[in-house]
Design brief:
Blueprint lengths: L1 H32 L2 H19 L16 H31 L2 H5 L6 H31 L7 H25 L3 H19 L10 H7 L3 H13 L6 H21 L4
Helix pairs in contact: 1-5, 2-3, 2-5, 3-5, 3-6, 3-7, 3-9, 5-6, 6-9, 6-10, 7-9, 9-10
């Protein structure tokens, strides 16, 4: 009898957990659609910035420092990564910590919802938004400025997927460590600008001095930038860069799960 009753009980618990995760994801997606500011900065701003930079005549001229590429060619991967940075560090942490401040997470803790469901829903929604932004940047680069599409499509997709996971894991860690919305904004901003530099927003990684480029390449977005550039040029992304992204993703995700608190 015990074994017979235990199996249905476990099945019911698993079904309840799945329903809870589905409910959280649905609710979070509805809330995301009601935030035009978040949608703009995450999905539209990187592409708009690319369009503005591409309209500068000097950005459409080939440069020796970029191995004959134009500056606008180098900025397409930058626009792709900028959307990840915006989603992971500027949009997601204040939202989750706001839930914590208002007691929403505390009330969730009494339900079958687990921390991974809350973080997973946020990472899934913001990750999807970042991917849409990436596709927009690639499309605008191709149609408006004749930037070639990635020649190694599979390698580019793999590098982009790892970059998305890594960027959102970083945001999840900030969300876990910050106890208030102000703290989340402050920590996110402190990490935001170095990550923008590493992604090449102010200076493409391939145009950096060798010593600085090697240092930047061990950071999450520096490794992502080089991996995307390699794939865009037709080569397979360096395994060192892919490995760095994978290691950062695992480490940041583990930290987020370890230090996440309901209140």
């Amino acid at each position: 009898m015990t074994a017979a009753t235990t199996a249905p009980s476990r099945a019911a618990t698993a079904s309840s957990a799945r329903s809870a995760r589905s409910a959280v994801l649905t609710a979070e997606f509805r809330l995301f659609r009601r935030e035009p500011g978040t949608i703009f900065w995450t999905m539209a701003f990187p592409t708009l910035l690319l369009a503005l930079l591409g309209s500068i005549p000097s950005f459409r001229e080939r440069a020796d420092s970029l191995d004959g590429l134009r500056m606008v060619d180098a900025y397409v991967p930058v626009a792709v990564l900028l959307s990840l940075i915006m989603a992971g560090l500027q949009a997601m942490p204040p939202l989750i910590t706001g839930y914590r401040e208002r007691g929403i997470l505390r009330r969730m803790s009494t339900t079958p919802v687990r921390p991974c469901a809350v973080l997973g829903a946020q990472m899934g929604i913001h990750g999807a938004a970042a991917l849409v932004s990436a596709l927009l940047s690639l499309a605008v680069g191709r149609l408006a400025f004749d930037v070639p599409l990635p020649r190694q499509a599979i390698g580019y997709a793999l590098a982009l997927l790892l970059a998305v996971l890594c960027g959102l894991a970083l945001g999840a860690l900030v969300s876990a460590l910050a106890r208030t919305t102000k703290a989340a904004t402050a920590i996110g901003s402190a990490v935001f600008f170095p990550m923008m530099f590493c992604a090449g927003v102010w200076l493409p990684v391939r145009a950096m001095p060798d010593a600085l480029a090697r240092l930047v390449e061990v950071t999450p977005f520096g490794a992502a930038s080089q991996a995307l550039n390699d794939a865009a040029a037709g080569g397979w992304p360096g395994w060192g860069h892919l490995g760095a992204l994978a290691l950062w993703t695992v480490a940041l995700s583990a930290g987020a799960s370890r230090w996440f608190r309901w209140e």
